[in-house]
Amino acid sequence: xxxxxxxxxxxxxxxxxxxxxxxxxxxxxxxxxxxxxxxxxxxxxxxxxxxxxxxxxxxxxxxxxxxxxxxxxxxxxxxxxxxxxxxxxxxxxxxxxxxxxxxxxxxxxxxxxxxxxxxxxxxxxx
Length: 126
Fold this sequence. Notes:
Helix content is 67%, strand content 0%. With 126 residues, it is mainly α. The longest helix is centred in the middle third of the chain and has 34 residues, at 50-83. The radius of gyration is 18 Å and the shape is flat.
């Protein structure tokens, strides 16, 4: 299989993941609406306690951040395919293993660099 064939295969996989994620988001929101609009509508009529409303709002925003990050990673991977740098680690420039790309086609780092990046303070768990 040529490099071009591999790029096409991963492009299809990424586009499928993107389309599935967008469909999931639309289904959860009841159509093409922002999660903030849905949350505002939901919480405007809520009879729950203020603490419950705040917790639910935090969950809504966390889901939005995750979805936005995932879409961004997919779009960045598609850009790397177009640029001819897909499959190369953004940190060390080495090849990302096919197993990693198959499991996580939007991966921008090899396992070693990803593990190193996760040790940085911004990845620290509270």
